[in-house]
Amino acid sequence: MKTPITVSITGAAGQIGYALLFRIASGFVFGPDQPVNLRLIEIEPGLPALNGVMMELDDCAFPLLNEVIGTADLDEGFKDANWCLLVGSVPRKAGMERADLLGINGKIFTGQGQAIARNAAKDVRVLVVGNPCNTNALIAMNNAAGVPADRFFAMTRLDENRAKSQLARKAGVHQSKVTNLCIWGNHSATQYPDFTNARIDGRPVTEVITDREWLEGEFITTVQQRGAAVIKARGLSSAASAANAALDTVKSLITPTPEGDWHSVAVCSDGSYGIEKGIMASMPIRTRGDGTWEVVQGVPVNDFSQGRIDLTIAELLEEREAVKDLIPA
Ligand code: NAD
Ligand code: LMR
């Protein structure tokens, strides 16, 4: 029997938490022979609901679920964590941009970054889902003294999945045929879903979908605005698809990336593609499945793409400026 892996999840009683926990406990993410400990973190008012979720976890009798702890104490919550999924934070409502949440949510991530540094396992990895996720991840990373920057990620996989579905629908093919889709920059309305390098069945998307006006216009805006469209339709922000994307992200980071492909996740920029060092920007990533990852180099960036990337990076720099008080010098 393998040693259990410990996964800490904040906001565990929320919508995304509810769609996330049971799939992790079932073995879907870490595999059918990997036992899992869950450390579920909520704020005090969320603890009664969390208790109900824990009752439901009990009621599943999952063979791989080793231990479940529910707590509002960050030290207990992040103890020995190998993976931290930082979901807990307030979602936006209709009419808001994600950056409007910075003032409300940003400060959550200082204490969480510090508690991760104090308590988590040496190999800890942190995926931030709570919005605005890139800048919240930047705050957590900068407050987690001693934890290497390459352990922090912010989620843009939902945007990648959305973009793949839109392209597949337009081309009349199954979404599994779409590869090499990179989301550049921020998980926000400035993100750039890069159709210029995406492929359908191995062919450039621009050869399969010749409607350039659609690619440069409606396609991009649909992906950028999809979160808002779901909020408008559901009255609540996306949850099952967000949880699914979080699980896709973790799986992609622990599994070798298929030859020639890449996946999207925001990482701490090393200056690749001229993106300012130290900000959390989404870019094309490959992994060997051994805990390391690299930015895919040499992806062509034409003038159109560069203009879009510049816009979304400028927004990330503005967000960093807005939270500079939460980032230790
Ligand atoms: P929700 O309101 O249903 O749940 C959030 C939970 O977090 C609540 O149970 C709340 O009690 C808890 N919480 C709040 N502050 C906390 C703290 N400091 N520590 C621990 N728990 C805390 O919200 P949701 O729909 O699950 O969404 C959660 C976040 O994920 C939102 O910020 C949302 O915008 C974001 N989100 C991101 C993406 C993405 O693609 N990156 C996609 C969807 C949603
Ligand atoms: C999403 O993209 O669905 C989430 O970030 C929620 C939101 O506020 O759009």
Verbal overview:
With 329 residues, this protein is α/β, with parallel strands linked by helices. 40% of the residues lie in helices and 18% in strands. The chain has 12 helices and 14 strands. A hairpin with a 7-residue loop joins strand 8 and strand 9 (192-194). The protein is globular, with a radius of gyration of 19 Å. The model has no long low-confidence stretch (mean pLDDT 97). It binds nicotinamide-adenine-dinucleotide and (2S)-2-hydroxybutanedioic acid. Residues 10-11, 13-17, 41-43, 46, 87-92, 108, 129-131, 133, 155, 158, 187, 237-239, 242 line the site of nicotinamide-adenine-dinucleotide.
Provide the descriptors you would attach to this structure in a database record.
329 residues; Malate_DH_type2; 12 helices; binds nicotinamide-adenine-dinucleotide; binds (2S)-2-hydroxybutanedioic acid; single chain; EC 1.1.1.37
